[in-house]
Amino acid sequence: MNTDIYKNITDALVKDGYIIIEDALHTDIPAKLLHYIKQQNSLQKAGISNNRYIDHSRRRDKTLWIDEDNNIQTQFLQFTNRLQKYLNTSLYLGLSYYEAHFALYEDGDFYEKHLDSFKNSKNRIITTVYYLNENWSKEDGGELVIYNKENKILTKVIPKTNTLVIFMSEDFPHEVLPVKKERYSIAGWFRVDKK
Ligand code: OGA
Ligand code: NI
Fold first, then answer.
1. What is the pTM of this model?
2. All residues at 6 or more sequence positions from 113 whose CB lies less than 8 Å from its CB, including other chains
3. How much is the pLDDT for 56?
4. Pick from 166, 105, 97, 89: nearest CA to 141
5. Residues 156, 13: contact at Cβ < 8 Å?
6. Domains of the chain
7. Which phi and psi angles does 123 have, rounded to 5°?
8. 7 Cα to the center of ligand 1, angstroms
9. pLDDT digits 0-9 by tens, 132-189
10. Is 121 helix (H, G, I), strand (E, B) or coil?
């Protein structure tokens, strides 16, 4: 892991509002996380929750919230903790905590275009997405499409292992195109409210 990563991320968020980093963390980290998540059978079907009604037509993936007490996840959370401190020190963002979940998209799964900050709340300030897929090619689908506020496509990200995407949660609509094979990621959010 290169120590300038915190500064690079901070500078990019100020300048562009988003950044995509390939080979972001030490290579041990994604390999261990992938091994761990493949062994779990407790991933939950995710949907868009509108009070009690869960709409699976807009989102089809399975998720598992990251657990601070789990060793394998500690290295990843060490990175996000340091990033949170760096962002707070340099930009006075007042980020209070980070929440994250593993997500599994299987053949045909997708997540339609959305914003990560909840309606009428500005709790989710910065989004991170970290990919765990070895040997991903264009034909496998599942790209993350990032749009600007005018809904023009800014970029498409191939979800290959150790690629990290970070963006301002309120400013970038994004979607996950349908996947053709198992796709693993960790989606996370820096927030400003109390846990
Ligand atoms: C999300 C999300 C993107 C991805 O979970 O909100 O947009 O590439 N995930 O997994
Ligand atoms: Ni999202």
1. 0.92
2. 145, 147, 173, 174, 175
3. 63
4. 105
5. no
6. 5-191 (2.60.120.620)
7. -80, -40
8. 24
9. 999 999 999 999 999 999 999 999 999 999 999 999 999 999 999 999 999 999 999 9
10. coil
Is any atom of ligand 1 closer than 6 Å to the C-beta of 124? no
Strand partners, 189: 99, 127
Spatial CB neighbours of 53, under 8 Å, sequence gap ≥ 6: none
Strands 183-191 and 124-131, by their bridges, are: antiparallel
**pLDDT exceeds cutoff 90 at 45:** no
How many angstroms separate the alpha carbon of residue 77 from the centre of ligand 2?
Answer: 19
User: What does the mean pLDDT of the chain come to?
Assistant: 89
